[in-house]
Amino acid sequence: MRGENWLVFVVLLFIFEICCLHIMGNDIYSMSSIPQPSAEFPIVLFNRLNYQTSSQNDYTRLKEEEYHVWSQTVGDEKREFRYRSIIVMPGRTLTFKAGFLSGNKFTSSVYNITNISNIHLWMFDNQDVGGSSGIWYTQWPHWEMNFALKLEPCPHCALPDCGNKTCYFGTCGISGECQCISGYSGENCTKRPTDLEKFPSIQYPLILFPQTYFQGTPKKLEPDTFEVFAQNSQSKLLYTYQSMRILFRRKVTFSRVDHNAEVEVPIGRDIEDIPLFMILNEHIGDELWINYSPTIELSFAVKIQDNPACTNCSNVGGSCFTGSCVCLPGYIGEYCDS
């Protein structure tokens, strides 16, 4: 009898997941304990189902117009998930994309999806996106593929309102609360990262890592200094650095080292997997030729823009998140050092 009761309990939990959490809708925006999207980062991706988090490592924030991988098919009917659920600003268009190793790509867009508690199940529920008329997610589980998503720009969408609250190292979320950028915390995002070696600073606004997901010994770079992150050698594309963190909203420039091509990202953000970023964001990778034949001997570099207005801003009492020096509570002066 106990076994039957346990089975009923499990079935009820499953139904709750499908019927309730899966269609939570706009109620998700009222949950202040869950990281929320903002105007600058209008989509939040979660490593776990149902937007569950225990630390900042469990989610990432995305800007508009940048493809980001959420799942991969790595073997015959074997899937790996980088992200399992998402929350999106309302009134936005979300584009899903599948990329094959052969170079073939499929895309499908959907409007005004505010949240998906289980992306995998959602694909089966929405065959116009996940099926053969979309990105083939549900149809070809035996092919090695990358599955990514991005949010289309929305210049006329309403902006969240946090009232008189200042978000020193973050942006205003749709819940009306400050949403801190990676490494920062606190009600007004005033607490700095504890591991300063792995996060950018005014002196070193770009940090490169030899492995994906910001792993390995970091290389700190000063502004306006190109550093080679990949090169074609012996008919192979080799990455010296595979992930990077940038300081706040600084402009990032990728370059082909023969200087015949440069691509600027006006408002940059951390990139956890540079190789996949280049493959999925063709407007950058193709322009650099990094996605083309590795038999062409080339090197590829990256730099971050300097901002003289931030040079002397205090690393203790100041915030230059917006591009100008703003004093944290308790600090005063032109550079917030008093």
Short account of what is shown:
Residues 178-189 form the EGF-like domain. With 338 residues, the chain is of the alpha+beta class.
What can you see in these coordinates?
The chain is α+β, with helices and mostly antiparallel strands. The protein has three domains: 33-151, Gamma-B Crystallin, domain 1 (Sandwich); 165-192, no CATH class; 206-304. It is 13% helix and 28% strand. The protein contains five helices and 21 strands. It has helices at 2-19, 119-125, 127-130, 274-280, 282-288, and strands spanning 43-46, 59-62, 68-75, 78-81, 85-88, 93-100, 105-111, 115-116, 145-151, 170-172, 178-180, 206-209, 219-221, 227-233, 236-239, 243-246, 252-256, 261-265, 299-304, 318-319, 326-327. The strands form six sheets. The protein has a five-stranded antiparallel β-sheet with strand order 4-3-9-6-7. A five-stranded antiparallel β-sheet has the order 15-14-19-17-18, covered by helices on one side. Strand 3 (68-75) and strand 4 form a beta hairpin. It is globular, with a radius of gyration of 21 Å.
SSE topology:
Blueprint lengths: L1 H18 L23 E4 L12 E4 L5 E8 L2 E4 L3 E4 L4 E8 L4 E7 L3 E2 L2 H7 L1 H4 L14 E7 L18 E3 L5 E3 L25 E4 L9 E3 L5 E7 L2 E4 L3 E4 L5 E5 L4 E5 L8 H7 L1 H7 L10 E6 L13 E2 L6 E2 L11
Helix pairs in contact: 4-5
Give a quick set of tags describing it.
338 residues; EGF-like domain-containing protein; transmembrane; 28% strand; transmembrane helix; five-stranded antiparallel sheet; 5 helices
